[in-house]
Amino acid sequence: MGVRAVITGMGIISPVGTGLEAFWQAITGGVSGIRRITQFDVSEFRTQIAGLVLDFEAMRYIEKKEARRMDRVAQFAVATAGMAIEDAGLNPDDLDGDRVGVVLGSGIGGMQTLEEQARILFERGPGRISPFLVPMMIGNMAAGLVALKFGFCGPNATLVTACASSNNAIGDAARMIERGEADVIIAGGTEAAVTPLALGGFCAMKATSARNDEPEKASRPFDAGRDGFVMAEGAAVLILESLEHAIKRNARIYAEFGGYGTSCDAYHMTAPEPEGRGAAQAMAAALHDAGVRPEEVDYINAHGTSTPLGDIAETKAVKRVFGGNPRLVVSSTKSMTGHLLGAAGGLEAIACVLSIQHGVIPPTINYDEPDPDCDLDYVPNKARQYPVKIALSNGFGFGGHNATLLFRKYEDGER
């Protein structure tokens, strides 16, 4: 067998808490991070709620001068990378920097900076535009700044596949490890797009929930009363490491990366293929890559965005691949965190890894009225003790992008 990739560290900033412990306690306790937006006036917006990060102080992680030259999306990335490195017990000074990479996903990039500088252009003229506009706005800068911060000169890339971005980033990073291109890669995603323009764009599409009077109940995947997704912000990264490298330094191993599958619906700009064919193709490819049979899978962390069409298509895709697997349970942590867009896959990969670690599956909250078209076991409203050896994480994005990750319990000497 070739090189194996394992997970040895994780870092997270989310609407339900910063750090692994706070995040895990929240999502297993059914805590919602959705609230009314107060950072700007939302009175004229169709959607007035989001999953917001309220406990983040950039200067706790980054020097003041550096932080001022970073969009919030990059600040999140650098902070979570530092958390993950510490969690993994890695000392950057002891590593061969040429063998350490960074692969991140971000669907939108530095939207906050773009809006602020566009306002300056229109109100004060081109001579007042910041020289840092471009490096703060471009989507790849988060990965570049993480590498710069820690001196990592290995593979460095940014994946932009809308809401599948982080899944693709983690999957591509694992393949780099498996091909021997790096010993360690920081992989995941970051997003900070709760801004007037981005929110207004999603509102114009009528893609987001308008349940403004009940923010905590707005994200309700697979429930008959769902009316759209809820935007959210945050970042989540994992340390992917070759098994040999991890063993050599006596690292704690959370789980093993098992498989990766990706596809495209080639159907519509924003709507999913109604029968879930592309999503099923990605899941089947991940199983094939891992050498895992459908009946061996215990848990799927669903893309589960709370949209009328998307939840039905994903349900059909799961049934297409897994048939009547009686062991399979599915849940959507977006019911609590909201949808972190390009960072969603990083957060949900961490949820899968922690489920394997703790033998607990987080619930799908706000599941009050079953939809006859969504008839799987969605772990409604309350976390469930459940031994998880194999877990999948789905990520599907505008443009028809589909990406599925498979994680498995690591057992010393296995295979």
Percent in helix: 25-40%
User: Into which percentage range does the β-strand content fall?
Assistant: 15-25%
The radius of gyration computed from the alpha-carbon positions, rounded to a whole number of angstroms, is 20 Å
Q: Quote the distance from N terminus to C terminus.
A: 9 Å
DSSP helical segment count: 13
Largest sheet: number of strands, sense, barrel closure: 11 strands, mixed
Order of helices and strands: EEHEEHHEHHHEHEHEHEHEHEHHEEEE
* Overall SS class: alpha/beta
Shape: globular
Low-confidence segments, given as residue ranges, are none
**Number of DSSP E strands:** 15
Write up this protein.
- Helix 3 packs across helix 6 (141-150) and helix 7 (165-178) packs across helix 13 (344-358).
- This protein has 415 residues and is an alpha/beta fold.
- It has helices at 20-28, 64-68, 72-87, 111-124, 133-137, 141-150, 165-178, 196-205, 243-248, 277-290, 308-322, 334-337, 344-358; strands at residues 5-14, 17-18, 34-36, 49-51, 100-105, 156-159, 184-191, 234-242, 255-264, 299-301, 329-331, 360-361, 384-385, 390-397, 401-408.
- Strands 1, 2, 5, 6, 7, 8, 9, 10, 11, 14 and 15 form an 11-stranded mixed sheet that branches. The chain has a two-stranded antiparallel sheet with strand order 3-4.
- The chain has 13 helices and 15 strands.
